[in-house]
Write a structure and sequence with these properties.
Length: 343
């Protein structure tokens, strides 16, 4: 694993390169045959060449949203679902069709109007291929109870409380092959954040929900647990902490045979939001400045996929070698030479 100093130096190289090439990081306009592109690749380690081609860039698939998050590839739809949190909506993007409003409301179903980050955030599929949502406004993990091609806002609550107290605002979610659901619970979906009077939890936790409905808190010492993902063998759980002031780290936890977690260790020194993992064990960390950091399984930085935008999350889709990225108002994609976990 890299030391703190080495991490800072590597990050500095990425960011310095990004800023130095700022004039090149403009949007290339679409033609009749090619979509518009944005960003580029910053290389720190030569091993990145095996992951992403030298001329790779992000394609702009959709734009004009307020804040995109939680992308998930849905084979049954042949496309990507992703959240627009402030607009309380989920959109569907499919090749040849573009992006359409797919579901609203997505995360807040109350009758009293409210502001803030009310919609769904992280999305995933359970073992039966059903959509599971981390719902900010309703402060729960829920499953959609509606057909794929005719979605309506009918949700089944999987869990909304721990020890009788309501969650803050479940943020991101990861499904294990056992059926266990792991999720993070920072305060971002509360209208007043940490100071919201409706906040009932004293901590910002990481939780595990078993298929039989048992809920347990696994981590209670992170200030803003956010993105969450498993290693390919599911023996390690990564949790990104999106607190740039106090705990700018991505943590790694050994997963015990019973589904619990061992003691955490710092995997990488960086503020992080969403994450994805490829079959080689490389971790894709969104949010640092303006893109996606690619860090190998030993915690060494290989480089950065520069979006030029504040970047929230990513996931693999298509045949497994396309990385879809949510960044500010955009949905983006970039072709890679590796496959994501699950393909």
């Amino acid at each position: 694993m890299n030391t703190f100093v080495a991490s800072l130096v590597a990050c500095a190289c990425v960011l310095a390169g990004s800023f130095a090439r700022g004039a090149e990081m403009t949007v290339d306009q679409a033609s009749d045959s090619q979509p518009a592109t944005i960003g580029g690749v910053e290389r720190v380690d030569g091993r990145l060449n095996a992951i992403v081609s030298p001329d790779a860039a992000f394609e702009i698939l959709a734009e004009g949203h307020e804040w995109t998050e939680g992308p998930v590839w849905v084979p049954a739809l042949g496309g990507i679902l992703y959240s627009d949190i402030p607009n309380n909506a989920v959109h569907l993007w499919r090749e040849g069709e573009g992006s359409t409003l797919w579901l609203r409301p997505s995360g807040y179903t109350g009758e009293t109007p409210r502001g803030g980050e009310s919609g769904s955030n992280g999305l995933t599929l359970d073992r039966a291929g059903r959509l599971v949502l981390a719902q900010h406004g309703d402060r729960r993990i829920a499953r959609l109870d509606a057909p794929w091609e005719a979605p309506t806002a009918r949700f089944e609550t999987l869990v909304d409380r721990f020890e009788g107290r309501r969650f803050n605002s479940p943020n991101d979610v990861a499904q294990r092959s056992t059926g266990d659901v792991y999720f993070t619970d920072p305060p971002y979906g509360l209208e007043r954040g940490m100071d919201d009077p409706v906040k009932e939890m004293a901590v910002q936790g990481v939780y595990r929900l078993t298929p039989d409905g048992e809920i347990s808190r696994l981590v209670d010492d992170l200030s803003r647990p956010n993105g969450i993902a498993f290693s390919p063998d599911e023996r390690t759980l990564y949790v990104a902490n999106s607190d740039g002031r106090n705990q700018p780290v991505v943590m790694a936890y050994d997963v015990e045979p019973d589904g619990g977690l061992g003691d955490g260790r710092v995997f990488y020194e960086s503020w992080g939001d969403g994450m994805a993992v490829d079959q080689q064990g490389n971790v894709y960390i969104t949010g640092p400045e303006n893109g996606v950091l690619i860090v190998d399984a030993d915690g060494d930085l290989l480089g950065s996929l520069v979006t030029t935008q504040s970047t929230s999350n990513c996931t693999f889709g298509d045949d497994g070698s396309t990385l879809y990225v949510t960044a500010d108002m955009y949905l983006l994609r970039i072709r890679l030479n590796v496959m994501g976990v699950g393909f």
